[in-house]
């Protein structure tokens, strides 16, 4: 009987310890309200300025979030450049076509001027994606912050986590479900293809030597004009857009297109026909408000994948490099 109070004490201690660490690790809204009150506004203004000046940066911010957060953690590992023992994730084939990394430095410099070594690059990735989505006519929503920056590249894991352009819908669903993104949210995330474009080398297999019978014939003819050879130069800027009607607006036209067999990739076609996803595709095609609701939910889920918080990681001074010891 004498050991019971001690057992109860140990149990309560463990509960308190668990509560402490869980509470410490949670992201929260307005995380910088005291340490850097103007942080989110500064990031938003820079996103707007860069979008107005360069036009395509907002799309880059959305893609950065996907590539950073699906691989291991939302820790800005994507932004690390190759130096010393670090091999950048940007060197992976999965990162082909990504650009505008240099403008992250512009955003970071503005934040550092206001609050040195306070706002993480990981939060800049998340917040710039949120604000980029708004610039592209997508939904406006709040995003939790408090992420810290990782100290290593996950380049060896990129291909394991990021689906290839023409992987099956089953594989795509499994990859997202592994990080807590459900089927409905995955369908919504793929709506980001609304402002995407695909390099010819990733879709010519649907055009040559014969046209994929699942492709709309008129659309296939258009794609052949965009990609006139079965062996495109991987360095040439030859591509087609998923959404020709509103190519720079995040909306539900992507779903309308794939229901008409006008998707560029295998996964686009399967998304519209697979019984697990087709009901959501039809609902999103019919209701842009519903798509916006699910897209914002999906982006938030993705942005909260396994973040470093509390005493983990660091706050990088320069998003391209780990801080010097």
Automatic annotation (TrEMBL):
Its cofactor is Ca(2+); heme b. Disulfide bonds join 36-115, 69-74, 121-319, 200-227. It comes from the Eukaryota. Keywords: Biological rhythms, Calcium, Disulfide bond, Glycoprotein, Heme, Hydrogen peroxide, Iron, Metal-binding, Oxidoreductase, Peroxidase, Secreted, Signal. Its main location: secreted. Residues 1-25 form the signal peptide. The active site is at residue 67. Binds 2 calcium ions per subunit. Heme b binds at residue 193. Residues 26-323 form the Plant heme peroxidase family profile domain. GO terms for molecular function: heme binding; lactoperoxidase activity; metal ion binding. Coiled coil: none annotated. The keyword Cell membrane does not apply. Ca(2+) 1 binds at residues 68, 71, 75, 77, 89. One of its GO terms (biological process) is rhythmic process. It catalyses: 2 a phenolic donor + H2O2 = 2 a phenolic radical donor + 2 H2O. Substrate binds at residue 163. Ca(2+) 2 binds at residues 243, 246, 251. One of its GO terms (cellular component) is extracellular region. Removal of H(2)O(2), oxidation of toxic reductants, biosynthesis and degradation of lignin, suberization, auxin catabolism, response to environmental stresses such as wounding, pathogen attack and oxidative stress. These functions might be dependent on each isozyme/isoform in each plant tissue. This is Peroxidase. It comes from Medicago truncatula (Barrel medic).
């Amino acid at each position: 009987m004498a050991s019971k109070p001690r057992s109860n004490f140990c149990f309560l201690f463990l509960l308190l310890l668990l509560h402490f660490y869980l509470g410490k690790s949670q992201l929260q809204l307005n995380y910088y309200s005291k340490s850097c009150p103007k942080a989110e506004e500064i990031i938003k203004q820079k996103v707007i300025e860069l979008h107005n000046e360069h036009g395509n940066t907002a799309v880059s911010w959305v893609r950065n979030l996907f590539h950073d957060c699906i691989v291991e953690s939302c820790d800005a590992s994507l932004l690390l450049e190759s130096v010393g023992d670090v091999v950048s994730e940007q060197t992976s084939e999965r990162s082909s076509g990504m650009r505008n990394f240099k403008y992250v430095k512009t955003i970071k410099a503005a934040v550092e001027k206001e609050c040195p070594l306070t706002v993480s690059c990981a939060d800049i990735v998340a917040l710039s994606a949120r604000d980029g989505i708004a610039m592209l006519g997508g939904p406006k929503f709040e995003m939790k912050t408090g992420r810290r920056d990782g100290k290593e590249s996950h380049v060896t894991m990129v291909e394991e986590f990021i689906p290839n352009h023409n992987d099956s819908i089953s594989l795509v669903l499994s990859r997202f479900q592994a990080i807590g993104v459900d089927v409905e949210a995955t369908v919504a995330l793929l709506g980001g293809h609304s402002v995407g474009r695909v390099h010819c080398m990733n879709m010519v297999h649907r055009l040559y030597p014969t046209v994929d019978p699942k492709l709309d014939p008129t659309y296939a003819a258009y794609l052949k004009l965009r990609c006139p050879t079965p062996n495109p130069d991987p360095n040439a800027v030859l591509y087609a857009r998923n959404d020709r009607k509103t190519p720079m607006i995040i909306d539900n036209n992507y779903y309308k297109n794939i229901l008409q067999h006008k998707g560029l990739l295998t996964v686009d076609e399967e998304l519209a026909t697979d019984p697990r996803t087709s009901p959501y595709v039809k609902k999103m095609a019919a209701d842009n408000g519903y798509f916006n609701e699910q897209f914002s939910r999906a982006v938030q889920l993705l942005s909260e994948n396994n973040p470093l918080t509390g005493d983990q990681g660091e706050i990088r001074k320069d998003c391209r490099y780990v801080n010097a010891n």
